[in-house]
Design brief:
CATH topology of the largest domain: Spore Coat Polysaccharide Biosynthesis Protein SpsA, Chain A
Keywords: Cytoplasm, Hydrolase, Metal-binding
Helix content: 25-40%
CATH class of the largest domain: Alpha Beta
Strand order of the largest sheet: 5-4-1-6-11-8-12
Protein name: Histidinol-phosphate phosphatase family protein
Radius of gyration: 30 Å
Number of domains: 3
Strand content: 15-25%
CATH superfamily of the largest domain: Spore Coat Polysaccharide Biosynthesis Protein SpsA, Chain A
Distance between the termini: 72 Å
Oligomer: single chain
Structural class: alpha/beta
Pfam families: Hydrolase_like (PF13242), NTP_transferase (PF00483)
GO molecular function: metal ion binding; phosphatase activity
CATH architecture of the largest domain: Alpha-Beta Complex
InterPro entries: HAD-like_sf (IPR036412), HAD-SF_hydro_IIIA (IPR006549), HAD_sf (IPR023214), Histidinol-phos (IPR006543), Mannose-1P_guanyltransferase (IPR050486), NTP_transferase_dom (IPR005835), Nucleotide-diphossugar_trans (IPR029044), P-loop_NTPase (IPR027417)
Length: 643
Amino acid sequence: MGEGKMTGVIIAGGKGERLKDINKDIPKPMSRINGKTVIEHQLDLLKKYGIQSVYILTGYLGHVIKDYFGDGSTFNLNIKYLDEDIPLGTAGCVKPLAKILNGDFIVFYGDIILDIKIDDFISFHHNKGGSGTLLIHPNDHPYDSDLVVIDEDETIVEFLFKDQKPQYYGNTANAAIYILSPDVFNYIPDGNSDFIKNVFPSMLRDGIKLYGYRTSEYVKDMGTVDRLEKIRIDMNVGKPYKTCKVHKRPAIFFDRDGTIIEYVDLLHKVDDIKLFSFSPMSIKKVNDSGYLSFIVTNQPVVARNICDTATVVGIHNKIETLLGHERAYIDRIYFCPHHPDRGYQGENLTYKIDCECRKPETGMILQAIEQYNIDVELSWMIGDTTTDIQTGINAGIKTILVRTGKGGKDNKYNVTANLILNNISDAVDYIISGGIKHEDILNIILKKIKCKNSPFVISIGGASRTGKSVFATHLKTILLEEGIKTMIADLDNWLIGVNHRNDSMTIKQRYRYNDIEKDMRKLLKGFPIEINIYDPYYRTIKDKDTLRLTNEDCVIVVGVPAIDIEGLRNISDLKLFITTDELIRTERFFSYYRWKDIQEEEIKTLYEKRLKDEVVFINSSKQFADLIIENKGGWYDYNKNSI
């Protein structure tokens, strides 16, 4: 297989029956999108990557294409044409090129809009050294797509046609873009034939090497009116350009067990998989957002010889199938089959090694970064264990611990996530659409901070489970980006441990109001203060720490009673009260205490008790807030109160 100058081939002979109502007098590839025909967009891409010689294979209304493009000189290209008198199929129409081409060529179907980094595609093809490379990608309708099955080396092993799929399958769809060597001509018969149904399977049967090049760049066919309109919308917002690999993209890395699917110890049976109900919709939001989505999972079941890698792939196929039914997809699943510890009966010694891919090592994430050109600074790791959080920290990406699965109770690593949220639904909402939507809030805060000598004190209060800590964390991030050094003081660390409480205690006693006021005044005067570290799971004091100012410009004091404490109000420069719909708060309250392994009846009793002895008092402190901020399911709106 040579590495000479690549030739472009565009298959443009189809009638486009599904577009006949809007394209009566032109062939489908001459449909206009953003002022250019589909073929023109394809030619622009080929030219961008130095492919000057192009063959356009025409059929129905082919003269329209010839009249428009001519010999290509107007477009700084060399264009030639081959006409088919009768439909010959995607491969049959290419057969006449056997007498013309003696080097590799790249094939586009004429109804495709795409923006891909072609030189990476070509490099992959050359490095693999096969007779052909197919561009494959995940999509949101794998159930009615032709799929390409590849092995760990990206070698194609099988094709799954739309109407001949097994129960579960991976989501690697044929994108109708190929790089082929002249070897392919030996497998194209005379007459009508199709690449994916006839030619490629025939090559595989003869042991000819074909490879699959995985990408998540923009590749869409415009074969229906709805798809054409969707592409026009995408083009208007620059989606093809933004998703091309020449640009860095942010990504969300998901753990698998206990995060996307329900936790099963040493999962090794396909039948045991159960997606969380919120997983498909959450991942669909990621797909629609511009973020890439990946699963990175440790699977030591292989090293322990409980199952083989094929079984793990089968498990992943089921996950991808179930997600696909809901029009969601994962861009790629990475798994580590290794385990460093030996001594298990029947273990597979091949996989009993120290490796760079087993979390909290970062090998899987680094592989994705290299393959997909990921923007590390804007990316996130979401998981249910401290191992996941340590992995994200090691990789230099932000982290969210979710309370599903192990909920951080594995205690393997002494780490703190950027955020702790109930599940991936909340996590994705925060990443994709969360945060402070109104610049007015930020402008008010920034203006006030810059008008006062340090430190500027922001107190954030409100009933439990309204989103105060998430807001405080997000605010701190923004302030740091503005060059404002910020500290958070969490009032939960002043709580009395559950073993030292009694039913007659008020919120003032549980939170030690007097100590909070005294400690905050001491801190702001520059003295260090010793604080407890409250463990929310065990509801006890687990450690001690020292809090001191080190030239902070801003101190955020966050907690249920932050605005209810008069002395704290008096030393606060800005008082914020966070609220949310009570139904949302109730759901979060119950979810939070379930995570603590408290029984349902006890949670209900506690909820009703807190309504009477806590919420009513805290809500009355709203009157003292400068801003009342409403948490609307991950993002925040506001009403002015006193400013």
